[in-house]
Amino acid sequence: MEEREVIETACSRFDNDSRRMLDILWDIQNTLGWISPATMRTIAKCTDTYRVEVEGVVTFYAFFMSQPQGEFVIHLCEDIIDRHAGMLAVLKSFEESLNIKAGETTKDGLFSLHLTSCIGMSDQAPAALLNNTVITHLTVNKAKILIRTLKKTRNLANVVKTLGDGNNHHDLIKSMVNNNIQLRGEVLLADINANAGLNKAFSLLPEEVIVTVQASNFLGRGGAGYSSAKKWLLAAATEADKRFVICNADEGEPGTFKDRVLLTERADLLFEGMTIVAYAIGSQHGILYLRAEYRYLLPYLEEILKKRRYEGLLGTDILVDETENTRFSFDIRIQLGAGAYICGEETSLINSCEGKRGEPKNKPPFPAESGYLGYPTVVNNVETFCNMPRILDKGAEWFTSIGTAESNGTKLLSVSGDCTRPGIYELPMGVTLNEVLTLTGAKDPEAIQIGGASGVMVGRSDFERKLCFEDLPTAGAIMIFSNQRNILEIADYYMHFFIEESCGYCTPCRVGNVFLKQGLEKIMQGQGETSDLKYLQDLGKTIIQTSRCGLGHSSPNPILSTMKNFPLVYAALLKEHPDGRQAGFNIQHALDESRIIAKRRSIVYDPDIGGD
Amino acid sequence: MTKKITFTIDGKTIDSKSGQSIMDACEAQGIYIPRLCDSKGLVPQGSCRVCSVKVNGRVVAACTQPVEDGANIEHETNEIQGYRKDLVRMLFHEGNHLCPICEASGRCELQAMAYRFGISQATTYPYLQPVRPVDASHPDIALDNNRCILCGRCIRASRDVDGKNVFEYIGRGIHKRIGVNGDCLADTNAELSDYAMSHEVCPVGCIIRKGEGFFAPVGERQYDMDKIGSSIESPGNPSSDKLIKVHQIDPGCFNKDMP
Q1: Which residue from A minimizes the CA distance to B53?
Q2: Cβ atoms within 10 Å, residue A574
Q3: Which residues contact B67 (CB under 8 A, 6 or more apart)?
Q4: CATH number reported for the structural domain that contains residue B196 in this entry
Q5: Which end of chain A is more exposed for a tag (fewer CB within 10 A), N or C?
Q6: What predicted TM-score, i.e. pTM, was given to this entire model?
Q7: A361: closest chain B residue by CA
C-alpha cells in the first residue's frame, strides 16, 4: 500500500475524527513505523485539523515516534528498581551489541534503543519492551543473545521461550510475564462467583446500588482516597443525554503493577464492575484506557469484551424491565495510551481519550459534571471497579468487617526491590510495614518508598505504621531498599522521572523540578552547604503550592521526604564554609567548560599535564 | 445566571457578582493580580501561575478559578508574593532573557513583572541557557524561541481571533515549546497583520516584527512610563502623570540602561 493510502485508510477507519487521534496515530505507526512531518500533514488534511496540532499530539507521547525507527524497537525500563537489578549493565550490553546509544537507531534500520519510565514489571526487573513483547529478568548475557538471535532470524516469534504463570499462558497473551501472586485476600484474588455482583446490582434500583457502595465506606483505590460513590452521585445527578464510565488502566506510578495482574487475571471482574457503575449512574458508554506498556494484553481484553457481548452482558438492552419499561444498554471500547505518566491524572486521561495532548484540564468543572466530550464522566481505577461486584455480591457489612475503622476492604500491594518474594499481596487495609517486610522476606530493609515516585520514602522509625487512608495511604507500590542502597541516588532518579513526565503546562512543575534536581546533585557531588537545604525546601514548597495538578503537587516528594526522614544522609554530604569562601565553589568544576572551549588544559590545575 | 456575592481579599470585603473569575472580579474593583499568560480577549488557561492566590487555604490560579460567595482570598501576603517572585524568576532562568540587548525591553511584561516585584538581579536558580534555533524565514516576522515563556497567548490569538492556528504547543516537559503549522513560519499563512503577531500578544521578545525594531526610544516605552498593572490600579491616570522611576530600583542585570 502507498503511504498515502495507509494514512487515509487509518483516518477513515476512525471516521476521520480528530477525537480518535491516538487510535489513528497507532494505526499508522504500526504500519509505517513512525509519523513523519508529511504524514502529519496528510492526517491533518483527512481529519480537518492542523499539522501542528497533530505534531503536538505526536510529540507529547513517548511511544509516538517522529523519527524513523528500526524494525525492532527496544524500550528498556530505566526505573530505579531496574537500575538496582542491573539495568545499566544491560543497557551497556545493548549499546555494545548494537553499536548505538539510547535514543538512536542502527544504520541498517534494524534496531532502535530507548529508555523508558517504569513499564510495570518491577517484580521481574530489569525488563524491556521489544515492540509489543515484554522481556523480563534481563541480564547482560540475555541481552546479547537476544540481539544475536534477532539479527539472525529477524523474527520475534522465537524470543519468548518460557511462558509466565496464569493467563499469561493464554493463546492471546503468550507472554513471559509472571503474575507473582504471593498472597490472595478475600476480596479480589479469592475465588469469585462470576457475575454474581452484576446480577445483584440488576435486582436493585440504580440509586440502591450507590447506597450499598456508600454503606461499604469504600474509598477509591487510585491513591487520593476519594469516595467513589460521591463521584457517581454527582454524575448521576447531572442532566445529560449521555454519561461515560472510564477505567483508568494507565498504571504509570513507578513500582506499581497490580492493575496489570488484575487485567490479566480479573478482566471479567473489571468489566463487570464497570457495568455495575454504568448501571448505577445511567451510562451507556465505557472506555478502558490501557497504557501502551500493556499493549500485549490488548487482544486478550478485546476477546473478553467480545465474549461478554456474546453472553449478553454488554451491548444493547442487556437489562430490560417490561413492567417499568426501562432498558439498559452499555458497551466498552478500549483506548490505548501512548506513554505518558500524566495521563493517570483523570482530566489528562480524558484529554487523551479525546485525541489531544494529555495535559490536565482546569477544574472546575469536574469530570463528573463535564468530562469526556463535555458529558458527565466517572473515572475510576482498575482496582476500584474490581471491588464493586464483590461489594454487591457479598454485601456492605461483609466489606466493612475487613480493614480498619476508616479504611475498609483489602489493598493490593505491588512489592518490589530488596526482598526475596516480590509480587502481588492482597492484604487487609491497616497492615503494618513490618508485617509486609516479614511476608516479603525483605533483606536488611533501610527505607521503603510508599506509593511510588509521588509517594513518600520512610525509614525504620516508620516501619510500625499502617497502610491505610488514616495513616500511610498508598495506591499500592511498595519498594523496599536495603541498607546497601544510596537514598539520594533514588531521590535523584525520581526527580529525573518527574522531569521526563511533566507535561510542561505550568511553570513551577516544568521549570522548578529541573532546578530541584540540580540542587540535589550539587549536594550529591559534595558541593552543598547548609543553606542549600533551605533552598530545596523553599523551592519544593513553591512547586507543591502553585502547580496545576497532582504531578506538581507531589513531584518534590522524593527530595522533601528523604530530607525529612533521612536528614543525616544529607548532613553528611554538606560542606562547611572554609575561610568565608563559597563552599559550593569547585575550581576543577568551574574550569571544565573553559577546558572544552579552549581545547587545552591548565598548568596549575591539571597536574598530569606533562603526560598529555 | 449571575447573582450578587461577597468575598474578602486581604481582609477587604468586596461586593461582586458570580459567574466570573477571581481575576476579573478583582479587576472590576481596581485590584491588579499579576499575570503573564493571560491577556484581554483571550481564553484564560492558567499556565504561568503568576496569578496564584490563596482561596480558603488552597493556592489556585486567579485567571481560571471562578469567584465564589464568601471566599477568603489572600493576594499580596508575603507567602503569595514569594511564590509569584519564584515563578517569575523561574521564567527568567528557563530562557535566555538578556534585557539590555532585547528589542522588547521596556514593553516586555516579564521584565516589567520583575520590576514590579523588585527583582533586579540574578538569583540562586541555575540558568538553563537553551539553544533553540531562531526562525527568521518569514519576510515580516521572526521567532526567537529562546525568549519564549510558553504563555501560549500567540496560540490562542491565532486560533481564536485570527482563525488560523499558526501556533501550537509541541513536545512536553522542559522540552515543550511553541511549534508552527509547517516546516517554518514562512511555510504557514502567518501575516504581520495577524492579531497573534501584534505587540499585545507576545509578552516577551519572542515574536519579533521585522523592520520595526526599537520603534520607540528606550526610556519612553510602556513600562518605562508605567508600572505593569497600573492601568487597572489607577485607571483614571494618564501614563504621563504616573511616571514610575524604574531607575530607582537597584540596577541589576535587567536594567535597560546597562551599556
Answers
A1: A546
A2: 16
A3: B5, B7, B16, B18, B20, B21, B22, B24, B25
A4: 3.30.70.20
A5: C
A6: 0.93
A7: B45
